[in-house]
Design a protein that fits this description.
binds pyridoxal-5'-phosphate; Aspartate Aminotransferase, domain 1; alpha/beta; Aspartate Aminotransferase, domain 2; 7-stranded mixed beta sheet; 15% strand; 4-stranded antiparallel beta sheet; 37% helix
Length: 404
Amino acid sequence: MFKINDNYLKLPGSYLFSNIAKKVNAFSEQHPEATIIRLGIGDVTQPLAPAIIDALHGAVDEMAHAETFRGYAPDLGYEFLRNAIAKNDFADRGCEIAADEIFISDGAKCDSGNIQEIFSLDNRIAVCDPVYPVYVDSNVMAGRTGSYDPLTERWSDVIYMPCTEANGFAPEFPKQTPDLIYLCFPNNPTGATITKSQLQEWVDYANRVGAVILFDAAYEAYISEDDVPHSIYECEGARTCAIELRSFSKNAGFTGTRLGFTVIPKDLKANGVMLHALWARRHGTKYNGAPYIVQKAGEAVYSEAGKKQVTEQVAYYMKNAQTIREGLQAAGFTAYGGVNSPYVWLKTPDHMTSWEFFDYLLEQANVVGTPGSGFGPSGEGYFRLTGFGTYENTLAALERIRRL
Ligand SMILES: Cc1ncc(COP(=O)(O)O)c(C=O)c1O
């Protein structure tokens, strides 16, 4: 009789977004006249920029002719895209990353879920709390996290680094020494960032204890302040301790088009073995590359027109985020984020739980957000709103919240 991977059965089940959908549907049925505004979404809403659409059309036409048709993509991705990334995302920021240290993929979710495969099951992971759930759940599936305690909502073999108001939503070095450290800045869900000198301390720490930092920079395009690093490779010594995950989803609207990349410097080694070689082997064995058409679209993000257009899109979402943060503060809420990130993290009023505030906001203002407790126990008492809606809806939602 076959046996399943019963690590999957340990997963407590992510009820967050299905619970939200259920509650919103029930409310709509009872109140068909209510116009609900959704500010909980982590998905973009603006269409792909014209330069990207032009590149897509051009690439589709190439596929129609034998002379320009493309089949399987090279394992690491097309050189035209890896060169554009190496120049724009790294060389221009003073980071030493070569094009052949960049692995093109279909997004940061897959890469952040799959990367743990190249590490032994004995490794101890450390995550921020609250956290993007993929980091923990993919390690649960692999069998690296021990047992789950529903009371504390924690795994026995995971090191949690609480990110709270008290520490400015920046993790502190854990008491136990981790082997793999997941960091995501600008952060989903808190919207917090850390400065370059804070990140440098993490790089120094990882090099000192022999840990690898898995740095998720999916939201780097939203950084507006100077001392916030766009890449971990801005820090000295990161080439020997850090893997960086990047996405085209939030900077250029590729959530449905799918494109991302992972950087593994060749200096990152365990007992002389390059992690780069392991990931290249995995890529070659299990992955056949992002479509040519989509990689051409990705290249267009780095064209002069593309850069200008995606910068305008990010500015649109950031205007929403600023409207939310300032609107909430004017209405007497304590709100964080929204400066270097599309996410605003607000404290629920009157000691309401995250879910109590969800119900209150839905019923009284017909506005939907995301309860902070869904991202981990330290998210209790917080609530996430995002700048990814339309400006008109954002203004209308804030006006309703102000009138509460
Ligand atoms: C922190 C973080 N990493 C990665 C992703 C997913 O990126 P992609 O669309 O490239 O898979 C998200 C999406 O919400 C995210 O919040």
